[in-house]
Amino acid sequence: MFFRKPIIIGNWKMNKNLDQALSLVKEIVTKDLDESVEKVICVPYLYVNEIRKILEKSDIEIGVQNMYFEKKGAFTGEISPTMLKSCGVKYVILGHSERRNIFKETDDLINKKVISALENDLIPILCCGETLNERKENKEKEVIENQIKKALLEVDREKISKIIIAYEPIWAIGTGAVASLEDAEDMCKYIRSILFKLYKDQANKVRIQYGGSVKQENIKDLMKQENIDGALVGGASLDVSFSKIINYKL
Ligand code: 13P
Predict the structure, then answer these.
(1) 44 CA to centre of ligand 1 in angstroms
(2) Which among 28, 71, 134, 173 has the fewest CB atoms less than 10 Å away?
(3) Is the pLDDT of residue 1 over 70?
(4) What Å distances lie between residue 39 and 68, 107, 177, 198, CA to CA?
């Protein structure tokens, strides 16, 4: 079996004021965290600079939850990859279902963002996932294949191993209804098979995460699955017990 370093990522979404954000990060860095796990917290843009200073004392990396694909220009309200780099950001969540559904981001836009992130030396965390209706109609694989192929259009073979893919079934996000271990593994395995078709053996290097109601109680079993290399954690990353999810092995 190919070794892929486990990666646990917190996605705070649009939560916390500055004081709350700083005190949570200050508390997390006091914890003994498993060094064999890669850890990232994706924070609101506004807090990046202050949080980065606190994280410097730890091995937790900083990420954000979106970006625009252009480097600069007349794009009111947007943040560019070069701005993110200049603030020490390393990871960026792209194509989250909330961006796709609430903000109407298309596969084409997400593809441009993935390419731009890679060109600017940021690590994309590319999200995909089906709705409950799509699953009820047994269309989940078709939906995921379509999202992945479109998002990765013209992404080179040399760069694919940098990307992290997060499979987040929409019906499991924020609902407490985690996918069964079998379904989560089956979908992550399917994503790897798509990558094999596109990138041959490079597919073995890509880390695939599961996301959707991940918590302390289910992380260990999820991480035992062969094709699940990490978790993208929403609600359960908002308090200090996130450190227990990171330390799932201990
Ligand atoms: P929850 O962990 O709150 O279900 O959110 C998952 C998610 O959307 C992470 O990006």
Answers:
(1) 15
(2) 71
(3) no
(4) 24, 27, 24, 28
